[in-house]
Amino acid sequence: MTDSAATADTGASAATDQAPADPAATDDVLATQPIGYWSGLAHEAVTRHLRDAMARIDVTQPQYWVLNRVKYGPAGPSRDEVVAQLTPLADGPHEVGRVVDQLLHRAWLRTDAGQGLHLTDAGEAVRVRLRGLVTELRAVVHEGISDEEYVAALKVLRRMVANVEGGGGGGV
Fold this sequence. Notes:
Elements: H1 3-10, H2 35-55, H3 61-72, H4 79-86, H5 95-105, E1 109-111, E2 117-119, H6 121-141, H7 147-165
Antiparallel strand pairs: 1-2
């Protein structure tokens, strides 16, 4: 057996073959599963779980983003600033602007003389309620997962993003 064949057999320093996505994959073959499939599945499931829970109280995830952005961002951000900061998370280029309009209509946001956005008392009450809901939902998502495992998973995902965006990974 050649040195390269021995390395491939032991898995040391060898690339792992990519297998087709398999929701029933056993632990011994998970290393061959495509990250895009599993990260996409996790994103869809968690987002759906969160958005379904918020819909039951007539609120959307983007509304929560805007309320938090106005609360924790620079004092009195403009509509354009909020839209620019949150659009990368949104489902389209116009969603955040529409959400700002919805929150102004519901009187959860108000504008000052310079058109800066501010939470109203009602908006802050909703934001606090949503924070509690999100905390409960996070506990469901994280059930059986230690903080150390969660941090390790995020570090792996962050590294994968850096590998492909930073030019560190080869294209396929």
